[in-house]
Structure of Peroxisomal membrane protein PMP34-like:
Amino acid sequence: MGSKDLKLLDVFSYESLVHAVAGAMGSVTAMTVFFPLDTARLRLQVDDKRKTKSSPAILSEIIKEEGLLAPYRGWFPVICSLCCSNFVYFYCFHSLKATWLQGQRTTPGRDLIIGIAAGVVNVLVTTPLWVVNTRLKLQGAKFRNEDIQPTHYKGITDAFVQIMQQEGVGALWNGTFPSLLLVLNPAVQFMIYEGLKRQLIRGVHRELSSVEVFLIGAIAKAIATTITYPLQTVQSVLRFGQHGQPADQSRLRNSLRSVMYLLTNRVRKWGVLGLFKGLEAKLLQTVLTAALMFLLYEKIANTTFRVMGVKRTMASH
């Protein structure tokens, strides 16, 4: 069997599939548990007339104005998108890792590069799903900003059709440029997570406990989220599609101008802290979600490998 055949086996390996399924299941469960916090974060990012408040206050306001189930509006499309997104990311991350390392010891630098590559593939494949779920999640919301026009989508398929008919196919990739920049978020997160996990395993010489996995997952996500939050805000606004960006013939130049316009406009209105509007809600939601996701991911993957009698390669540690 040649080296090309070996590399192909690494890409389409059972181990990569287990990691992908475990990551998708873990993320879906964790997001379901903390979904209302994500609703609060998205409202603060998109509705710029809403005053900054704590997550409980925002959620209380949403429930009072829109009903008890409002914090879970758009749950299904978000879960579908998240499941696909994490499956693609985990599969690419572990396939690329196995292909590149070939049994060698990994390093934080390699983890970062592999994370960025996996993130780029993930963004290009799943951005249309995230555009649709952002629209559906905000449909029916009571905004403080009167300039935001209400939308009327009947579901995921109808949203796809309406966006393509009214705004063109390219609108499904709104926010792709900041999303490509934001591949640093999961890349940094995985680099920190994998690095901390390796150090702990070397120190204790055993499988990590649930508390240890939860804590290193939380630390990794908190750092990655804080660093990239301003771009996440721009990404949400662009996906919503009602930002009044300046038109330009070049799509790349138009994307650059939109990102800069939204960032400078936010700073002009609220100062530098305006770039971090909703960070408290985002940190609370994303850190808890990521920590629970990593915990479930490790447990599901380890249990599957143990039941199937498959020995994990050193590249995964």
